[in-house]
Amino acid sequence: MTKSILSTSKAPAAIGPYSQGICANGFIFTSGQIPINPTSGKIEVTEIEGQTRQVMANLQEVLKAGGSEFSKVVKATIFLSDLGNFGKVNEIYGSFFPKDPPARSCVQVGKLPKDSLVEIEMVATL
Length: 126
Prior knowledge:
By secondary structure, the chain is of the alpha+beta class. Helices cover 22% and strands 30% of the residues. It has two helices and eight strands; from the N terminus they run E-E-E-E-E-H-E-H-E-E.
């Protein structure tokens, strides 16, 4: 198995013992991204729409670091602190997949790192 670690300064640094992403056997597996601004290292927006946009920007950079993009995403998992935000997140998330969206799961969780409102992870092809 061929495996390589993905790392980019254009996405937030890991806040624990994990990699931003892994390339393995023609796939990219991203770690869950929360809405940390990679420049400041902080969550700068408090509303779900802004947090979702930042998460997607972070994911785009991790995918790009591995030689992939949103059109090659095959599976996504969305974690929400409040499923009541599903519609707003869905609208923003969907704008990144105008054609042939990936398989996806969305669940509500008790709490997310740094009290963020949303976290998303993805699997993509190269």
